[in-house]
Write the structure tokens for this entry.
Amino acid sequence: MLPRLFPHPVYAEDQPSAYTILTIHCLHRGFTTGAIFGLVAPFARTAVATILRRPSLTTPLPWTVRLLSSAAIGSLAGTGFIGVGMVARMWGREKIEWQDRSWRILANKSQNREDDWSASGMIIGALALGLAASRGAGFGLRVGRASLAGAAVGSVLGTVGHVLTSSNSVEEVERKVIAGEGPLAPKEPSKEQTGIHAE
């Protein structure tokens, strides 16, 4: 996502828009991380209520509504928490430190792929659930909250999709190497390497 929006020079000290790149990256990570905690929270709360035998700790809302609402709240909380953490960590740092971190983010292909999957899921989820809510099929959520919840869940699903497809890609490479296929497969030595020359 970010490499398509910002240039990536050869040297880190030439990296433009360093503040913007690092800020977008951190807020995006905070959004997804918060959404994950938001999705886990209803299950944890139910488990605690069951262990303590206190049904009052749970809400009477349907599970779908509880999960979506919790994901929406978690995504906002995560974004805010990571945003504050970034400011606290980078406050007073030299520009080159921002440039170095931003340059490394753009150079990390796996990170960029994860961002693509997560952002795609975020957009699709927000549009899908927001449109459903506008037509009265958003599980009782208003359009704004439904769109936010859809973005949160979509971001998490996109990240999961990235992880699953990445592992499949690695397994495919390993399979080809074992089968003697692909560019990483061992090659037979040439006649020059073995000392055998054609007569």
About this structure: Helices lie at 2-5, 18-52, 63-90, 95-107, 109-134, 143-178, 191-194. Residues 143-178 form the longest helix (36 residues).
